[in-house]
Amino acid sequence: MINLTEWERNNFINTAHMPDITVIFPSREIYFSPEILNVMRLNIETCPKTLDQWYELCHPEDHMKLSKLESIIYGHESTFTLTRKLYCGDGYYRNFRLDGFVQRQDGKPVKITGTETLALSAWLANAQEGDRIECTDNNGIIRTLEAFRVQGVMMLRDIGEIEDMQQENLRLRREIQRRIFSRSTFPVILPEDYTEGTLIHNKLEDCINSALNVMTGNSQLKALRRSLNETSLMIGIAGLTSSGKSSFVNALLGERLIPEQTRATTNIPIICREGEFRSAKIFYQDGRSEEIRGAELTGVYMKNAASESFNPGNKSGISRIEITIPGAMIPSGICFVDTPGFDALASSGGAALRNVLPELDMMIYVTPVRARLKGADYEYLRLLMNMNGRIVFVLSQIDLERDDSEAGQVIHSAHDKILGDINAIRQDMRNFCGTDFDVIPVSSKNALENFYDKKSQSWIDSNLEDAVNYFEPLGRDSFTRALMMRAERILKLVDGVISRREVTGSSRWRLQEVAGKLRKILSVNSGLSEIPSGYSFSESVITPKNQGKNLLSSLITSMREREFKTRFFELEAFRNKKKAVLLGAEKIQSMKLFSRLSHNLMLETMPDGGVIPSEWLCTGHVMPFGCVRVPVTGGAENILIAPSNVNITQNVDWHKLFNEYVPVVSVDLARVDSGLSDLVNSPYITGLALNKWVLSFGNAGLFDTRQIDLVSQVPKRVNEFVELNGLKSPDWFIFENYKIFSV
Questions:
Q1: Please, are residues 733 and 554 in contact by the beta-carbon 8 Å criterion?
Q2: More confident call, 2 vs 683
Q3: How confident is the model at residue 392 (pLDDT cuts 50, 70, 90)?
Q4: Average pLDDT score over residue span 501-509
Q5: DSSP state string for 276-335
Q6: How confident is the model at residue 346 (pLDDT cuts 50, 70, 90)?
Q7: What is the DSSP letter of 247?
Q8: Pairwise CA distance, residues 360 & 489, whole Å
Q9: Are 143 and 113 in contact (CB under 8 A)?
């Protein structure tokens, strides 16, 4: 904003149709225009009502500027400019510039009118290279500006045109990719293990033929015989309609070839591979096939083909489509098969699904975030497990998860939410079948949008590369591995017929002979049918050990901590027992720690009527004495919560209690001296001389690396206190609280 004379400021602000901010004196009531409320992400109910409440939105670093403003208001100046950071309704601080005018009567302020704008100059002064800000130009168009450094000077550039050019470049690259691969035939590429696999293939074909002589017309066995000619490992992508199956396939291909969000697209299986040539082969139910290539293969073509197969009057009878895309994120030796959505199948779609399932060597089951498994999921999973027990879950749409912030602090990160979704699926499956399954989170949207920018953070956050790396080892020895998986399915099918006594006499004997041959094949090649296990979505999960009892390093790592309960029970004091008794001069400090731990323990309820200061609380099944039981699920650890020091009324054998429960003493990090003084007068201090114990500090978020000097003397004070009182040296535990129960 240009500099204005006092007369210009006065006339401009007072003649404006609606000033951004108006303050009335002496009540100090404040009023905001709808425009500034929108910019600050506030509404009429949540906005400040007085000047003092408005001051509270100011960043603590700018409080001195508010004192200067007060001196202007009650001084003699009439105009002012104030640049500072304000807390907005979405949990972020933004730089604003206020140009105001103070109207006076008899020297006293009666009214302030002002215009509030996002301060680009102030924002740029504090920006880092690459930071972005949105603003509106003179034509009312929202532009995105990016900070960049030139010869040591920070400047702004409009990146809207740059992003438009990048999108156009991406579109052209994909168009070129479609056009340059125009050969009409697939090269015949056999896997390295083809020679060894041929021998196994012949043995399996003999077993199937022998079994079919007894199990005449068995559709699953016929499908398994068809699958023997497939040299790649076939991984099916399954799930309910709109779960994200087709989006996941498109993310692997790097383009939207498989139409999304329509039932027609999933009515037939679509087999996808990575290869040298861009082509698609359409197979018909009458045995015919045709091929398209190069630029002819488009999303429109695929949509039309899928729509034709979905039409009940369709005479073409398309049974499946096989496509090959150069540069696709599909490991060598593997093909992915997009299958029909289970809960929205027409009769033909149901037949197509049941025809292709026996051919699939393993399954990827796609389910979106924030959705626990439903009845239709369990019905489909039961079908898949009966045919093929190898299932890996993909948690789709993880880009929908966002950090929850409060007062500028992240109280529940998107990463933690995704971990919660993963654990929910695993728990649902444990309840369903008693088995653990791997769950891989993926954002197909971010992966597809950034497919040609694999160094971008959005691509990394999509986690698609991690998912592909999970399956990549299966591509090694793929032909033999696939045959072993198919042999297991044949054996399962044959054993089922034998155990159900569906055949008798010589037929039963012949099937037993087939089963014996299959077991021999599997024993010779044992291990090849195994799939990866133990996948852990651990990016940015930090679980530090308590090394050297360094308070400052613990303080810094606590800001990044995710697995809170894990970090707590990995302290040295808990090596031989997983029970804790939470102590402290103020019960609220213990409740802060308990609040954090109970998130991972899945706290259900607190006792009715709140918490009485003199009561002992217990989360375990076995209580050492009379306590109020706090019901929890999902964790076996016993936690005792003691009353405040002054409210411990009953006689307690502290030595006996500390032999069973690790004492955890909570002290306010901002009031260490007074906290240690309270500890001296506590009834349990003598027990700390004989037992390992933990010194816990909450509210660590009040101290970041810029203010670390405020607590740099804490270790020295604590060490002196421990030595003076003859106590055992404690373990440190430092954390930031984000939920406090009322006490």
A1: yes
A2: 683
A3: very high
A4: 82
A5: SS-EEEEEETTS-EEEEEGGG--HHHHHHHHHHHHSTT-SS-EEEEEEEETT-S--TTEE
A6: very low
A7: H
A8: 10
A9: no
Helix (H) or strand (E) holding 156: strand 153-158
Contact predicate 62/141, CB 8 Å: no
Contact 2, 51 (CB under 8 A): no
Q: Position 286: which residue type?
A: D
- Under 8 Å between Cβ of 40 and 91: no
Beta partners for residue 450, in sequence order: none
Distance CA(563)–CA(567), nearest Å, equals 6
Report how far residue 422's alpha carbon sits from residue 372's, in angstroms, rounded to the nearest whole number. 10
Instruction: Look at phi and psi of residue 434 and say left if phi exceeds 0, alpha if psi is from -120 to 50, else beta.
Output: left
Tokens of 398: 């993880």
pLDDT at 8 over 50: no
pLDDT at residue number 715: 78
- Using CA atoms, how far residue 125 sits from 128, 137, 151, 418, 634, in Å, is 9, 21, 15, 36, 49
- Helix (H) or strand (E) holding 733, with range, is strand 731-734
Closest CA to 173 of 444, 453, 447, 445: 453
Strand ranges (DSSP E) for 619-719? 628-629, 638-641, 662-668, 694-698
Kind and range of the H or E run holding 480: helix 478-499
3-state secondary structure 348-399: HHHHHHHHHHHHCCEEEEEEECCCCCCHHHHHHHHHHHHHCCCEEEEEECHH
- Separation of alpha carbons 284 and 264, rounded Å: 17
**Rounded to an integer, what distance in angstroms lies between the CA atom of residue 573 and that of residue 197?**
55
Q: In the 8-state DSSP scheme, what is residue 45?
A: T
Structure tokens at 738: 């984000």
Contact yes or no for 425/373 (Cβ under 8 A): yes
Closest by CA to 589, choosing from 712, 683, 694, 688, is 694
Q: At what angle do helices 219-227 and 347-356 cross, to 10 degrees?
A: 60
Classify residue 711 as exposed, middle or buried by CB count within 10 Å of its CB (0-12, 13-18, 19+). Answer: buried
Most confident segment among 258-272, 375-389, 704-718: 375-389
Residue 322 · residue 277 · CB < 8 Å: no
CB atoms within 10 A of CB 657: 19
Q: What is the pTM of this model?
A: 0.50
Query: Is residue 476's pLDDT more than 70?
Result: yes
Note the pLDDT of residue 240.
83
- What per-residue confidence (pLDDT) applies to 121? 62
| Cβ-based burial of 267 (10 A; exposed 0-12, middle 13-18, buried ≥19) | buried
| Residue listed under structure tokens 């010869």 | 151
Query: Given the structure tokens 């444990």, which residue do they identify?
Result: 430
Smallest CA-to-CA distance from 332 within 452, 451, 468, 184 is with: 468
Only one residue has tokens 């989360």, namely 619
What is d(CA 379, CA 395) in angstroms, rounded to the nearest whole number?
Answer: 19
